[in-house]
Fold:
Amino acid sequence: MDNIIAETEETAVGVKAEAPAEKSDTKSNIFGESNIELLMDVSLRVTVELGRTRMKLAQILELQHGSVVELDRLAGDPVDIFVNDRMVAHGEVVIVDDKFGVRITEMVSPNNEKANY
Structure:
């Protein structure tokens, strides 16, 4: 009888040792880098900011067709590129087939410092 109990105990230990290894492999497959493809169709709002200004309400009420609003940037200054209200890059305005576009000239790190790429 002692031999039977020893074999049963060994079998139980073997099953317990294998089960956690299978679960950790499954988690790494579910949350692995290869599943980034699931996010590739997510839409994000991209905004390009030419500049800003502050105006009094009286000045805004005087605006009409053809009015010029002066911005805080000079012509030729880089524009800021935002993704979901977070600045990600600087760029320059370009014209492609009679449409405006932006050429990215510099990526910005999360704390708004120039990123080294």
